Amino acid sequence: MKRHHFFASVLLAVGLMVVQAAPVLAAGKVHKLAIHVDENDKSRMNMALNNAANVMAYYEAKGEEVHIEIVAYGPGLHMFRADTSPVKQRIAAMALELDNIKFSACGNTHKKMSKKGKVALISEAKLVPSGVVQLMELQEKGWAYVRP
């Protein structure tokens, strides 16, 4: 009988430790979001930036970490072009304010656009070999995917 009480006490103690640790485990989770832009449309670009800002604010308010990567390819690469981006000031401000956001520009699209002359990207954007492959690989690593 004493042995039964001992094991019951151990199980109860372990159960209490798990219940107490649950909020810590949840708070330690890192959320990851990939946002896809493939249209040269200012409203779509702003929607992508709004999505990013809203997700950041939501998880910041909860005390949870989030990483966001906006990936642009095809006509959406205009979002990151220094000469044609309608949202470059907003991207610059967001990059200064938010540590956990990345802007990835498709190397394939950039190469194609550069055939007509050099295409400069905004400083916040980093070239990746392929925008589509970048989105695939992020999803394979467990990133959530949104296309506004």
Describe this structure in words.
The model is unreliable at 10-25 (pLDDT under 50). The radius of gyration is 22 Å and the shape is globular. It starts with a helix and ends with a strand. It is built from 5 helices and 5 strands. The protein has one domain (30-146): DsrEFH-like (Hypothetical Protein Ychn, Chain: A). The longest helix has 26 residues, at 2-27. α2 (42-61) links the parallel β1 (30-37) and β2 (65-72). The chain has helices spanning 2-27, 42-61, 88-97, 107-114, 131-140, and strands at residues 30-37, 65-72, 101-106, 125-128, 144-146. A 5-stranded parallel β-sheet has the order 4-3-2-1-5, with helices on both faces. It is of the alpha/beta class.
List the helices and strands and how they pair.
Elements: H1 2-27, E1 30-37, H2 42-61, E2 65-72, H3 88-97, E3 101-106, H4 107-114, E4 125-128, H5 131-140, E5 144-146
Parallel strand pairs: 1-2, 1-5, 2-3, 3-4
What is the strand content? 15-25%
Number of helices: 5
Shape label: globular
- The CATH homologous superfamily is named DsrEFH-like
- The poorly predicted ranges are 10-25
Q: What is the second-level CATH architecture?
A: 3-Layer(aba) Sandwich
Percent helix, as a range, is 40-55%
Radius of gyration: 22 Å
Spatial sequence of strands, sheet with the most strands = 4-3-2-1-5
Largest sheet: 5 strands, parallel
What letter string, H or E per element, gives the SSE order? HEHEHEHEHE
State mean pLDDT (0 to 100 scale). 88
Structural class: alpha/beta
Number of strands: 5
> Number of folding domains?
1
Q: Class, according to the CATH hierarchy?
A: Alpha Beta
- CATH T-level topology: Hypothetical Protein Ychn, Chain: A
Rounded to the nearest angstrom, the distance between the terminal CA atoms is 63 Å
